[in-house]
Amino acid sequence: MHISVIIPTCGRLRELSLCLQGLEKQTLKPDEIIVVNDSMSEIAVSGNVKLVKAKTKLGAAGAKNMGAKIARGEILAFLDDDCVPHPNWLEFLARPFKSQKISVAAGRIKEKRKAVLKRNWRDLILNLPFYPFYFLGRKKVGGAIYFNGRVAANLDVSGIGFCDWGGAGNLAARKDFFIAAGGFDSRFLPGPSLEEPDLCLRIKESGGAIFYQGQAVVSHNPSAFGRLAPDIMIQNLRANEVYFGLKNIAFRGPLEFFGFFLYQAWQILIYFILILANRKYWLRIKGKAKGLKYYLAIR
């Protein structure tokens, strides 16, 4: 089994260095490591790392597609540059592929505690409609969360189990399934993105199986989202949420439809109220409109 590790990067030299140091300590060495430089500045890597530079700004999804295109491995392991893999990360992430039934393996993303706890009253209010739908339909089984008959990977638990999708920064896929699914959707905007869950759902709908491997752990430092201004990052996040939700969730069933549109309507209402105190919240509404625009473009 040949494995290619693909890392997109954009101006985060310190984080990339820590990521590559983590790969050097792996109990199972990858057959190749590909770093895709999606920034305008030049970077240097050492050892057996293959460095490729994007000619134009691709975004994370496009950069990963570029790396996958030149990868020689039959298994493509995607790792974000701000994630540090634990020493046995690749060994555990590759284990599910011993079964030919598994198309994608998703690993555990261990967040820094201070980042996880960094919440404020606005987050609680904005997400208020989400909680009843989440807890009423939720039960943990292995490494998965079941919601209204659907399954999503719980990204920070140690169990294992089949799931519907895995999260950004710690995902591996068979190259033939990846290519057949069309790779990552490059319409997702830079910043916190959802191209990995989107890819997983397309692979699952084509007959592939997604497996959550909670023993394949990376530590994530979310404190540095490239060089994006915070307001642009939040705007892109809202656009990506709407685009992903309309594409993959809202039209799956009545509960999903009602929950998604209630959630969006509530957030827009709160943003209009917050605009009275700070006009920057207009960017959140603009981001949601941008996500709707991208979804309508593919219909």
Q: Would you kindly provide a written description of the structure presented here, covering whatever features stand out?
A:
This protein has 299 residues and is of the alpha/beta class. It folds into 2 domains: 197 residues, Spore Coat Polysaccharide Biosynthesis Protein SpsA, Chain A; 69 residues. Helix content is 41%, strand content 23%. The strands form 2 sheets. Strands 1, 2, 3, 4, 5, 6, 10, 11 and 12 form a 9-stranded mixed β-sheet that branches. Strands 7-8-9 form a 3-stranded antiparallel β-sheet. Strand 7 and strand 8 form a beta hairpin. The radius of gyration is 19 Å and the shape is globular. The protein starts with a strand and ends with a helix. 45% of the residues are buried.
Helix segment tally? 11
- Poorly predicted regions: 115-119, 136-154
Order of helices and strands: EHEEHEEHEHHHEEEEEHHEHHH
How many discrete structural domains? 2
Q: Give the beta-strand count.
A: 12
- Can you tell me the CATH superfamily of the largest domain? Spore Coat Polysaccharide Biosynthesis Protein SpsA, Chain A
Which CATH class of the largest domain? Alpha Beta
User: What portion of residues is helical?
Assistant: 40-55%
Just name the CATH architecture of the largest domain: Alpha-Beta Complex
What value does the Rg take, in angstroms? Answer: 19 Å
Might you state the CATH topology name of the largest domain?
Spore Coat Polysaccharide Biosynthesis Protein SpsA, Chain A
Strand content: 15-25%
How many strands, what sense, and barrel or not for the largest sheet?
9 strands, mixed
